[in-house]
């Protein structure tokens, strides 16, 4: 995993010793290790269809009068994904008062870290994240960006979402007392006047040998 502040890398290095007047020959190569680490007795992940609707009223923009009148609806097939499977779903633009220039899908990596907590300070680590009174640093960076739509799409036409996860820049979601590695996807709509709206979806990445359970 290659991150901004957190990286986990494995190298193999070969060194050929040469006589005293010659420089040693050294070559290093990075390699990848994949390990399915299901805890004993852990239940399989649950995949559930997530429907969404994006309108001016659903956004938290401070000046909504600048936002064009539009409505985008769709679904993500899940918010839990195996690292070796693509993120999929679909959406459609039902109506929009101005032309759309582009629609993109972003994969965002969120690294949160801080100093380990003192033993006297209680720390609550739950599925929603890290909660304590210590100062921590949160850094969100774009890992991958794909253009789904180029130009003004037809109204009510289903548009597929399909993003393959990059192997070197993603890893299973990790939440510990000292740091977190999490991932999000953004559906970004760019209008002709360059006004941009974004819908954010926190996702969980896993590497598991257990077959996920799909709920409809």
TrEMBL record:
InterPro entries reported in the protein's UniProt record: Arrestin-like_C (IPR014752), Vps26-related (IPR028934)
Biased composition (Basic and acidic residues): 130-141
Name the UniProt record assigns to this protein: Down syndrome critical region protein 3
Matching Pfam families: Vps26 (PF03643)
Domain of life: Eukaryota
Species annotation: Aceria tosichella (wheat curl mite)
Gene: Dscr3_1
Lineage, top ranks: Eukaryota, Metazoa, Ecdysozoa, Arthropoda, Chelicerata
Spans annotated as Disordered: 114-141
Family: Belongs to the VPS26 family.
Gene Ontology annotations of biological process type: intracellular protein transport
């Amino acid at each position: 995993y290659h991150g901004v502040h957190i990286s986990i890398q494995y190298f193999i290095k070969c060194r050929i010793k040469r006589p005293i007047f010659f420089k040693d020959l050294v070559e290093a190569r990075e390699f990848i290790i994949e390990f399915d680490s299901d805890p004993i007795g852990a239940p399989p992940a649950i995949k559930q269809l997530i429907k969404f609707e994006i309108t001016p009223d659903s956004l938290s923009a401070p000046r909504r009068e600048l936002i064009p009148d539009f409505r985008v609806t769709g679904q993500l097939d899940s918010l839990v994904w195996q690292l070796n499977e693509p993120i999929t779903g679909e959406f459609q633009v039902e109506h929009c008062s101005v032309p759309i220039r582009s629609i993109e899908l972003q994969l965002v990596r969120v690294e949160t870290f801080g100093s380990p907590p003192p033993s006297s300070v209680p720390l609550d680590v739950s599925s929603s994240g890290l909660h304590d009174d210590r100062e921590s640093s949160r850094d969100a960076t774009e890992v991958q960006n794909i253009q789904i739509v180029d130009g003004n799409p037809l109204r009510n036409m289903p548009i597929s979402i399909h993003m393959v996860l990059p192997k070197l820049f993603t890893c299973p979601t990790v939440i510990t007392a000292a740091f977190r590695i999490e991932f999000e996807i953004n559906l970004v709509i760019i209008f002709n006047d360059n006004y941009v709206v974004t819908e954010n979806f926190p996702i969980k990445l896993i590497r598991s040998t257990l077959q996920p359970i799909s709920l409809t």
